[in-house]
Amino acid sequence: MENDRKPAVEGYDQAASDDADHEIDGALATFPFDRMSAQRFRQTFPRARWNDKLQAWTVPGKSARRRIDRWLALEAARTEAFANEKGRDAYAFEPILSPYLELDDMGFRVRTLYSRRIVEELRQIPFSRWDGDRRVWRVPFSSYDDLQNRWKTIGEAARRNEPEERRKRAEARKGTDEELRLKRRSSERRRRRLPLPSHDLPQLGRPIATLVYGIVVVTAITGELVDRGAFADLYPDLTDDHLWCLWRLPTLDELIHTWPAKTTAGAYEHMRGWWQPTIDELREARRRARSRERRNAGADFQQMPEH
User: Fold this and answer.
1) Along the chain (307 residues), what's the average pLDDT of each consecutive run of 10 residues?
2) Structure pTM?
3) Cβ atoms within 10 A of the Cβ of 236, count?
4) Cα distance between residue 284 and residue 32, in whole Å
5) Please, is 191 exposed, middle or buried when counting C-beta atoms within 10 Å of its C-beta (0-12, 13-18, 19+)?
């Protein structure tokens, strides 16, 4: 049992490992231990020795680094292939049956109408990515367990986003306080204004992330104080020193040249209503800006006069 805990296999030689400290030409190799990987490593590098002090294998030779990197790449491919086969088997045993999930040789394709909740869930799945050409999210077979764990939330959000479901919710809201609040919020958005604290205002002309309107560019500070009592239901963190600021949507070029924040926004940033966007927030805003500019370009082309 003791040998099973060592990151080596039978043939481990402590004396030889001490000699490895004196190798002039060579390189170190480290990898997650399992007995089969260690056996394959020893077969490929019969002169390799375990170094207890460095907790790594030492491989002699001037080309050792290149040979180790090649072996590690092959091991990674072997591990990925195993993980993909495991995911295929898991799907075959317990499949996700949904009109929003498709299968191909590369893995899973998630195809739904846009939902911020869905995007947030998919981004938490390892190795998932957006395929802009086919307008689907791709998830490899190796991440099936993670996809399955999050599918209930993804599927429910996708169904809520269907036009018929949205129509039903709109019908149910008619005449309610919620409908009135949504109309007021829509009216506020058309006015392109945003309340921000006077003591901590963002720089004009630079994209910022906001709690209410996503990523915007503040273009002007009006100096007009916000009536806290009249707008507290739309902006719950209002204080007596909030000012109205005007904003516009950022261009794709502005978003591309915006430096992302290294950490997500904290409690203070959310309370004041704006923060420097993260790379994930910028990617989503860039996707929307790209679609918006394509639509505008198509509209401009259709309106061009004939010669």
Assistant:
1) 38 36 65 78 90 84 87 76 85 92 91 87 85 86 91 94 87 79 84 93 94 93 91 86 94 93 88 91 89 76 51
2) 0.49
3) 9
4) 35
5) exposed
